[in-house]
Design goal:
124 residues; alpha+beta; five-stranded antiparallel β-sheet; 2 helices; elongated; binds zinc ion
Length: 124
Protein backbone atom coordinates (compact mmCIF):
# COMPACT_ATOMS: atom_id res chain seq x y z
CA UNK A 1 0.00 0.00 0.00
CA UNK A 2 1.25 3.42 -0.86
CA UNK A 3 1.62 5.96 1.90
CA UNK A 4 -0.01 9.25 1.09
CA UNK A 5 2.66 11.66 -0.04
CA UNK A 6 3.31 14.46 2.33
CA UNK A 7 4.38 17.71 0.84
CA UNK A 8 7.18 19.08 2.93
CA UNK A 9 8.46 22.59 2.67
CA UNK A 10 11.87 24.04 3.34
CA UNK A 11 12.02 25.44 6.90
CA UNK A 12 13.90 28.49 5.62
CA UNK A 13 12.26 29.55 2.34
CA UNK A 14 9.05 27.47 2.45
CA UNK A 15 9.50 26.03 -1.05
CA UNK A 16 8.35 22.42 -1.52
CA UNK A 17 11.17 19.95 -0.94
CA UNK A 18 12.10 17.21 -3.37
CA UNK A 19 14.04 14.06 -2.68
CA UNK A 20 14.72 12.39 0.66
CA UNK A 21 11.80 12.48 3.07
CA UNK A 22 13.97 13.56 6.00
CA UNK A 23 15.16 16.68 4.20
CA UNK A 24 14.37 19.91 5.97
CA UNK A 25 16.08 22.42 3.69
CA UNK A 26 16.62 22.95 -0.03
CA UNK A 27 20.35 23.26 0.41
CA UNK A 28 23.15 24.37 2.70
CA UNK A 29 22.32 28.00 2.04
CA UNK A 30 18.79 27.58 3.43
CA UNK A 31 20.08 25.53 6.36
CA UNK A 32 22.58 28.27 7.28
CA UNK A 33 19.99 31.02 6.89
CA UNK A 34 17.59 29.16 9.17
CA UNK A 35 20.19 28.46 11.85
CA UNK A 36 21.40 32.07 11.82
CA UNK A 37 17.85 33.29 12.24
CA UNK A 38 17.28 30.98 15.22
CA UNK A 39 20.54 32.08 16.80
CA UNK A 40 19.67 35.76 16.48
CA UNK A 41 16.23 35.20 18.00
CA UNK A 42 17.87 33.40 20.93
CA UNK A 43 20.46 36.16 21.31
CA UNK A 44 17.75 38.84 21.29
CA UNK A 45 15.69 37.01 23.88
CA UNK A 46 18.72 36.51 26.10
CA UNK A 47 19.68 40.17 25.76
CA UNK A 48 16.17 41.27 26.72
CA UNK A 49 16.15 39.01 29.78
CA UNK A 50 19.62 40.13 30.83
CA UNK A 51 18.55 43.76 30.48
CA UNK A 52 15.44 43.14 32.59
CA UNK A 53 17.51 41.43 35.29
CA UNK A 54 20.05 44.25 35.35
CA UNK A 55 17.27 46.81 35.58
CA UNK A 56 15.65 44.89 38.45
CA UNK A 57 18.98 44.80 40.27
CA UNK A 58 19.52 48.55 39.73
CA UNK A 59 16.04 49.31 41.08
CA UNK A 60 16.63 47.24 44.22
CA UNK A 61 20.06 48.78 44.71
CA UNK A 62 18.68 52.31 44.36
CA UNK A 63 16.01 51.61 47.00
CA UNK A 64 18.54 50.26 49.49
CA UNK A 65 20.50 53.12 51.04
CA UNK A 66 24.27 52.77 51.22
CA UNK A 67 25.28 51.30 54.56
CA UNK A 68 21.84 49.87 55.31
CA UNK A 69 21.31 46.13 55.35
CA UNK A 70 17.61 46.19 54.48
CA UNK A 71 14.95 48.62 53.35
CA UNK A 72 11.21 48.40 52.93
CA UNK A 73 9.27 49.37 49.85
CA UNK A 74 5.89 48.75 48.29
CA UNK A 75 4.89 46.74 45.26
CA UNK A 76 3.46 49.89 43.72
CA UNK A 77 6.78 51.70 44.02
CA UNK A 78 8.66 48.79 42.44
CA UNK A 79 6.22 48.61 39.53
CA UNK A 80 6.40 52.39 39.09
CA UNK A 81 10.15 52.10 38.64
CA UNK A 82 9.68 49.36 36.06
CA UNK A 83 10.50 46.35 38.19
CA UNK A 84 9.69 43.11 36.34
CA UNK A 85 8.70 40.53 38.96
CA UNK A 86 8.94 37.60 36.56
CA UNK A 87 12.70 37.99 36.19
CA UNK A 88 14.89 36.69 38.99
CA UNK A 89 18.25 34.94 39.02
CA UNK A 90 17.69 32.62 41.97
CA UNK A 91 15.75 31.90 45.14
CA UNK A 92 16.95 31.56 48.68
CA UNK A 93 14.78 29.85 51.27
CA UNK A 94 15.70 30.25 54.92
CA UNK A 95 15.43 27.53 57.56
CA UNK A 96 12.26 29.19 58.75
CA UNK A 97 10.70 28.85 55.29
CA UNK A 98 10.97 32.42 54.05
CA UNK A 99 11.81 32.69 50.36
CA UNK A 100 13.96 35.55 49.08
CA UNK A 101 13.91 36.37 45.37
CA UNK A 102 17.23 37.51 43.98
CA UNK A 103 18.41 39.51 41.00
CA UNK A 104 22.13 38.85 41.22
CA UNK A 105 23.36 40.20 44.56
CA UNK A 106 20.20 42.09 45.50
CA UNK A 107 16.97 40.48 46.54
CA UNK A 108 13.60 40.95 48.11
CA UNK A 109 11.30 39.20 50.51
CA UNK A 110 7.56 39.67 50.00
CA UNK A 111 5.95 40.91 53.24
CA UNK A 112 2.32 41.39 54.13
CA UNK A 113 0.05 43.85 52.34
CA UNK A 114 2.25 44.27 49.25
CA UNK A 115 5.28 45.46 51.17
CA UNK A 116 8.72 44.16 50.28
CA UNK A 117 11.92 43.90 52.24
CA UNK A 118 14.97 44.60 50.08
CA UNK A 119 18.22 42.91 50.98
CA UNK A 120 21.77 42.74 49.77
CA UNK A 121 23.43 39.34 49.66
CA UNK A 122 25.87 38.96 52.51
CA UNK A 123 29.35 37.74 51.69
CA UNK A 124 29.70 34.06 52.48
ZN1 LIG B 1 14.92 26.64 1.04
Amino acid sequence: MLQPKETRNCLACDKPLKGRSDKKFCDDYCRAAYNNELKSITNNQMRNINNALSKNRRILEALLPEGEETAKTTREKLIQKGFAFKYITHLYTTKTGKTYYYCYDHGYLPLENDWYLIVRRKED
